[in-house]
Amino acid sequence: MRPIDISIVVPLYNEEAVFDTLIQRLTKVMDQAKFSCEVLLINDGSIDKTDQLIEKICEKDTRFMGVLLSRNHGHQLAVSAGLAYARAKQGVLIIDGDLQDPPELIVDFHELLLKGYDVIYAIRKNRKESFLKKLAYSAYYRLQKRISSFNIPIDSGDFSMLSRRVVDTMNDMPEQSRYLRGMRAWVGFKQIGFEYDRDERQAGETKYSWSKLFELAFNGIFNFSDFPIKFITRLGFLTVLFSFIYFVYNVYRKIMYNDVPQGFTATILAIILFSGVQLISLGLIGEYVLRIYNQVRNRPLFVIDKIIQDGKVKEEIK
Ligand code: UDP
Ligand code: MG
After folding, report:
1. Are residue 210 and residue 288 in the same domain, yes or no?
2. 76-121: per-residue pLDDT in tens?
3. Which atom of ligand 1 approaches the CA of 96 most closely?
4. Taking CA atoms, which of 27, 66, 113, 259 is between 20 and 30 Å from 238?
5. Nearest CA to ligand 1 atom 25
6. 11 Cα: distance to centroid of ligand 1 (angstroms)
7. Taking the model in full, what pTM does it have?
8. Domain range holding 255?
């Protein structure tokens, strides 16, 4: 068998509606490519027929490999499972299953990979999504850029090509709350953006609920930034400084004019203010403690139900 140059990782959660189109597009891309490919179809605990469709295509065409997770683990972990099983020598393409990202770009990405880039990440020129979502994304990416400890490119999603050594490094990163585009940027080496038009989802509904989206956004901020906790410390110092000035000012008024009221309002205000500050601080500390907790539990990232490789079902490989 020819060695595999590129692995294509596709996470799938209830995608039976796009499945056939997806397979057609991917097959065409593989037939035309000058390099050899495998496709890893990750079933992220779908409750429709996605798993059966995966098994069928894997038995028919051995370039397809199925990785069936035991339940829904979420997009980031589904992709992580794909990265763990990708066998390609040169690199891995990560792509959504709903065809919002054109798989045909693999040719351009592969060229850049051969030119020595380790990470080729796609930048969305425009988005065909609701106004509210666009606004939220744009605000989020800009906030993240301002406060991250290092540079995570704006408007780039998970759609990207990663070199073998980047994938190996990411596979060795044990963090539980995974934010792949942050981890990818963290690894370093030569990285380059590639602008493209993001299409609309070809069929079916979005599988990212607002709550999943919020979780992703939180991981992006808290996993890659110390800013929130540093901000709280600074706020604490400022508050102390302010109260000191306030105290000196009141002493001055008392001595010079003797007009300081027997303040009830001030007391209440102070109590509210400081309770607020404390609550925020506790919440933020909790954020980090939660992450420590998740990490020290050290669970495996995902659980595999079944692997279909080279047209055969395997319970365990590797
Ligand atoms: N996905 C997944 N597990 C999930 C949610 C989504 O594997 O829990 C997959 C989904 O099937 C798709 C990709 O991740 O291939 C991106 O999801 P989606 O298109 O729903 O997200 P959006 O583009 O709306 O942000
Ligand atoms: Mg989508």
Report:
1. no
2. 999 999 999 999 999 999 999 998 899 999 999 999 999 999 999 9
3. 15
4. 259
5. 208
6. 7
7. 0.76
8. 227-296
